[in-house]
């Protein structure tokens, strides 16, 4: 375990790449002394408020609609455990381990900022769960995205209490068994701690972090696959000329045009205006404009999520410098909800335009190539049904892109009368990204097949992409089980094999 990389969490400098590293590569977490000192200071505030019997939401009062109910004495401690048990009512399939690890990491990073009032030993217990590979079973359904991700985070905390369920080394067991297996004892929550652990946006933010990494892979992959299709259809790269994009200076558009030209550099498969046609169809000619808009959206969402990774999303928030305890709404997931919905739309468009390019590849009236890219049409169907599959998945994405963030259902007897549905948006986003990788896989296999019917050198980037797919998928000469080919192409995309292919 000691040989694994260690990421230091101080509450202010966590990068999305580090979240992904902890989530996917089982990196360890450490907390610097300066951050621990801030945690201790905020804890002192809580203890003073309890001993002074101050009226403070969630510390000496109930929650939600019960915020006007005073809690005193030993009940202050029992209140926190009751909170976790009552709020752990999620349903559905559990989140994958990588989502759980990202969620735990983000919650730790919020707590170490020193505005939450948690005890240092409770914080370190959560750190040890991550470092020792104890992954709570967290159902995917049940969060409104305000007051934060209450149900998912409550399931996370159950295991700290020796309750609920967890996965250790791929085996599912009770929370008590999991703690015992790694040499940890259950904890007893004190005042404010239950609320500090579950009042935040960490489920939706975890999903967004992972989706952003996967979306970047899809983005870079889409460009080189599109360039292959341009060559297969003998497209006109003049539409990617830098001077055209300088006069409409969207950064993403300019970057996409640059990358397309780089992928096509040295190609003998493309044409000039008027050689075969004066203009290409939009799905080729407008590649920089469409892909570029997705690039710009990615950058916006990346910035927004990076900010959230280092935010305080509790309620109430304790300010040790001024002594103020402020009840507000930092737990509200609206920024993440909008970001997730926006990114889902942007990534879905990569699939939409990809499916249109696949149609141009397989349709002989549009391509000038053998129908459905098979040499013996009639006896063989070739790529006929792959386009059906792409169309089906694209249609599914369009349904999933209905924004969750425009919905709100009041809760807690109308005390919490506007919620973000941000976690629903983030869950849908990850499905959209995965679906788009499938659509691009179909175009990838089809473009490689279409290239077989032409002659001449491929571009510097497209040649590498073509050679890569031919290492695992041979040319289609007669019908075979196409799902096997598509699965291999999808694996190449999801593994990021084409992400390092470009400039």
Largest sheet: 3 strands, antiparallel
Overall mean confidence score, pLDDT: 95
User: How do the SSEs run, as a string of H and E?
Assistant: EHEHHEHHEEHEEHHHHHHHEEHHHHHH
Residues in β-strands, percent: 5-15%
Strand order of the largest sheet: 4-6-7
CATH topology annotation of the largest domain = Fumarase C, Chain A, domain 2
The N- and C-terminal alpha carbons lie at a distance of 36 Å
Protein name: Histidine ammonia-lyase
Pathway: Amino-acid degradation; L-histidine degradation into L-glutamate; N-formimidoyl-L-glutamate from L-histidine: step 1/3
GO biological process, one term: L-histidine catabolic process to glutamate and formamide
Subcellular location: Cytoplasm
Structure keywords:
histidine ammonia-lyase activity, three-stranded antiparallel β-sheet, two-stranded parallel sheet, 503 residues, 54% helix, Fumarase C, Chain B, domain 1, Fumarase C, Chain A, domain 2, mainly alpha, Histidine ammonia-lyase, 2 domains, single chain, 9 strands
Describe the structure.
- The protein has 503 residues and is mainly α.
- The chain folds into two domains: 6-200, Fumarase/aspartase (N-terminal domain) (Fumarase C, Chain B, domain 1), CATH 1.10.275.10; 207-311 and 345-501, Fumarase C, Chain A, domain 2.
- Helices cover 54% and strands 6% of the residues.
- It contains 19 helices and nine strands.
- It has helices at residues 16-25, 33-51, 75-87, 97-111, 120-131, 150-160, 175-181, 193-198, 202-232, 242-246, 251-264, 282-285, 287-309, 334-362, 364-367, 384-400, 422-451, 460-470, 482-494, and strands spanning 6-8, 28-30, 91-94, 134-136, 139-141, 165-168, 171-174, 317-319, 324-326.
- The strands form four sheets. Strands 4-6-7 form a three-stranded antiparallel beta sheet. A two-stranded parallel ribbon has the order 1-2.
- Helix 9 (202-232) packs parallel to helix 14 and helix 17 crosses helix 19.
- It is elongated and about 85 Å long.
- The relative contact order is 0.12.
- The model has no long low-confidence stretch (mean pLDDT 95).
